[in-house]
């Protein structure tokens, strides 16, 4: 079940073996995410321009849609995590979620108005909400605990390959066909279906070593209870994730601010996503390993400091290429230092038998916070302009960093936080 990029074999549970190997389940789930991210990010890369230039939506309307894109999955994330714990079949909960998102891709081929786009984005993100916690629970179950950050880093690296390839393919399509938005939507549907097939055929129904029940007893399946989220350490993680998420806006807003400042051709817009994701791809594993060794909380807080710097770069009124490139690098650092690291923190504190519920709790908090952030940011953009809105969010997030560091402080060894 565990592989190295150089060789196979050996016991993953021996000290030292886990430092060089990750589970084949993690790699396969990474491939599923790669294909799914080609699907979703090829659409996400053109959606801001499609909605504001083709459909003609205002920044407020785009803010609502971006908020839905960020946060509507919160409605079902806890349910998806609980269902995975309850059934002990996280794979099939994930399959259902991936399947819903794949069906939503068909809707993009037909939608032409605000209401239809809202409905499609809602269905797509509900699918994401159902699948994410079960998928991360499978990664946790298949990983050596002390290298959990590395395992999530490997998964996020493969995930980010898709997140970089998707916008690149969208760029190439629009370069050849300037109005080829429908072609991008067809590509998105095909990749979503292929990822669903890989998940269904290649990922085992169970991962990790199951602990058999005592003789004469009946296995107890967890009933849903908010007590699954009651661990003090997990509560601190949830609070910090929510506070930071309140000042984390969707990348589309940052990219629209960069595009407005430098006035580059709309055809090049998807490459902004590529730049961020290439940095994320390069740093996901190194920062995951750093989090395991130096401290997951420290890396998580440092990642949000990079986001503050990215906001400042996007707000600088200099119409040159350098601030844009620096902004993309900082956004990539932010994602590499927070995405998988937050999952590792939540999994670490989740009660036994409720890993997926704990992961879903963290994801729900982040999704709700980012929904509010995008909605408020859209209103601020419309009211006072992008520069003031970015500076305001940067200041608020900067003030939040010492609070986050204080709440996540620990007396344990840094590798466990």
UniProtKB/TrEMBL annotation:
Membrane-topology descriptor: Multi-pass membrane protein
Annotated InterPro entries: MFS, MFS_dom, MFS_trans_sf
Presence of the UniProt keyword Membrane in the record: yes
Localization annotation: Cell membrane
Record's keyword terms, sorted: Membrane, Transmembrane, Transmembrane helix
Domain of life, source organism: Bacteria
Main localization category: membrane
MF-aspect GO terms: transmembrane transporter activity
Pfam families reported in the protein's UniProt record: MFS_1
Entry GO CC: plasma membrane
Domain called Major facilitator superfamily (MFS) profile: residue spans: 25-412
Annotated transmembrane regions: 43-65, 95-121, 157-177, 183-203, 237-258, 264-287, 299-322, 328-347, 359-382, 388-408
PANTHER family: C-METHYLTRANSFERASE, MAJOR FACILITATOR SUPERFAMILY TRANSPORTER
Protein name: MFS transporter
Naturally occurring in which organism (per UniProt): Cryobacterium arcticum
């Amino acid at each position: 079940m565990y592989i190295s990029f150089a060789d196979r074999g050996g016991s993953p549970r021996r000290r030292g073996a886990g430092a060089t190997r990750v589970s084949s389940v993690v790699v396969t789930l990474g491939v599923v995410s790669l294909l799914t991210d080609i699907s979703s990010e090829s659409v996400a890369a053109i959606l801001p321009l499609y909605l504001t230039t083709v459909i003609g939506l205002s920044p407020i309307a785009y803010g609502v849609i971006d908020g839905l894109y960020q946060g509507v999955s919160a409605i079902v994330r806890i349910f998806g995590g609980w269902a995975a714990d309850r059934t002990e079949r996280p794979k099939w909960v994930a399959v259902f979620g991936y399947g819903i998102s794949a069906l939503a891709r068909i809707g993009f081929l037909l939608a032409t108005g605000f209401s239809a786009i809202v409905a499609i984005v809602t269905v797509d993100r509900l699918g994401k909400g159902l699948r994410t916690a079960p998928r991360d629970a499978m990664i946790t179950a298949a990983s050596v605990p002390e290298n959990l950050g590395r395992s999530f880093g490997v998964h996020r690296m493969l995930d980010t390959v898709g997140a970089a390839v998707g916008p690149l393919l969208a760029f190439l399509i629009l370069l050849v066909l300037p109005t080829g938005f429908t072609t991008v939507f067809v590509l998105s549907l095909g990749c979503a279906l292929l990822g669903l097939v890989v998940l269904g055929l290649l990922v085992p129904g169970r991962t990790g070593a199951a602990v058999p029940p005592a003789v004469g007893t009946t296995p107890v399946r967890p009933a849903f209870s908010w007590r699954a989220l009651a661990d003090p350490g997990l509560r601190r993680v949830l609070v910090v994730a929510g506070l930071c998420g309140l000042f984390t806006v969707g990348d589309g807003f940052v990219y629209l601010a960069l595009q407005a400042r430098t006035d580059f051709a709309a055809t090049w817009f998807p490459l902004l996503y590529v730049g961020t994701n290439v940095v994320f791809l390069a740093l996901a594993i190194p920062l995951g390993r750093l989090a395991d060794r130096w401290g997951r909380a420290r890396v998580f807080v440092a990642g949000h400091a990079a986001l503050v710097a990215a906001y400042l770069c996007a707000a600088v009124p200099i119409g040159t290429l350098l601030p844009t490139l620096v902004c993309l690098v900082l956004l990539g650092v932010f994602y590499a230092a927070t995405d998988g690291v937050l999952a590792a923190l939540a999994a670490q504190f989740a009660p036994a038998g409720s890993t997926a519920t704990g992961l879903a709790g963290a994801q729900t908090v982040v999704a709700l916070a980012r929904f509010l952030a995008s909605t408020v940011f859209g209103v601020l953009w419309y009211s006072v302009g992008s520069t003031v809105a970015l500076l305001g969010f940067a200041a608020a997030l900067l003030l939040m960093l010492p609070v986050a560091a204080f709440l996540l402080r620990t007396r344990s060894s840094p590798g466990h936080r």
